[in-house]
Amino acid sequence: MLERSLMSDLLKWQQQTVRQPIVLNGARQTGKTFLLKNIFGKSSKFRRLHYLDFERDPSLQTIFDDGLSPDAVIGNIGLRLGESVDQATDLIVFDEVGSCDRALQSLKYIADEWPHAFVIATGSNIGLLQSFPVGRVDMMELFPLTFEEFLNASASQMLVDAYQRLLDASEAHQQLWSALLDYYYVGGMPSAVNHWIASQVSLVERVHNVKKVHRNLIDSYRLDFGKYSGPVDAHHIESVFRNIPLQLGKNIDGSVNRFRFREPINGKKRYAELRGPIDWLDKANLASRNYLIAQEPRAPLNAYTKENVFKLFLFDVGLLGYMVGMSYADQKHQNLSFKGFIAENFVQNELIAKGLSQTYSWEQNQAHIEFVIVTKNGEIVPVEVKSGNRTQAKSLTSYIQRYNPKLAVKLVGARGGKHGVLNTLPLYHAPRILELSSYNNA
User: Fold this and answer.
1) 77 and 151 assigned to the same domain
2) Which of 149, 146, 167 is nearest to 158 (CA)?
3) Domain co-membership, 110 together with 180
4) 20 Cα distance to chain centroid
5) Looking at the structure, do residues 372 and 275 belong to the same domain, yes or no?
6) pTM for this structure?
7) CA distances, 187 to each of 184, 233, 387, 410 (Å)
8) What's the farthest any 2 CA atoms get from each other in the chain?
């Protein structure tokens, strides 16, 4: 059973004496339903789990025919499911709540009138909804498994402990780097990870099964484009979605370039013409933007960006590799300078999963810094990503000479170290950069 770090947030919510309903957002098939039904719902000692899937069974909408009062709704749920519902001890799950507007709206009444109830709604299209009970729900997000979650599922406890302790040992690094290359191929979609960790299956079969999962996932997303796109042309969404890996894959050795609007759809060359499909993919959690800054970065970083100048990344590195046709051998035995775009997309996804809702990069003349972040202490930190063990960082040197930051980070395919303001970390420790501080590293 895959462990998810979001469990700690769910348990904290459960332990509150007064709580709002949760809306659990996330791309389709990232494991929202499984987490609630098979992990949280079973391990947290609820008396009973009441599960309603509004997408699979549209007739469930009739439970709101007597109004949105929690008493009326919960009473109808009990009658519909044939089981008593106790707000003090039971977990109620509204799955794919975006398919039932009244279910979504009922959450604000539950928050007001039943503050002790355990109610969680899920959705893969939450960002696309026109109406939402703002301020009456707690938002949580479930992403594909991060590298640490993948490591928890696939590696020995000793290696997991070494990773969490930042053990700087050659054997630990070799094993963690090997695990990272596995992760580049498998990605973090739960179905792919489950096939990968199947102990009774040979490596050849596991590789084949993961590839099959990736193919099926891409096909399912293509069907979703037509189902949920509304006024946005589904063909245009699919064209942009398939073009993201193509553009990323052109960056063989170096920083990913800004997204080119003239490539995805014939006859459309401007951001205004592709804004709808790009926004749709972003709101559906299938893509994320990284905005470029072309001057000295200062807080707030978004003040120095343009809405049409950004990089566009895919939400899962395993699907990215599949869509550009990379095999397991390509990932595992790569020429370490060849897969820079995979490493950069990996860092993007890890930072977002860590809670960084928006990322930024820096570009000036021929110098590129893949990420510029603001730490918890408010420090602006340049982060250069080098996919292999070739660690020369001319752009980072240029940035340091220009702006004299107190702290700079280089992520590489080798063991780390510290020299002056520069902290060098292995790529698999990318999420740790949010915790760094010049005060702690003085």
Assistant:
1) no
2) 167
3) no
4) 24
5) yes
6) 0.93
7) 6, 28, 17, 23
8) 70
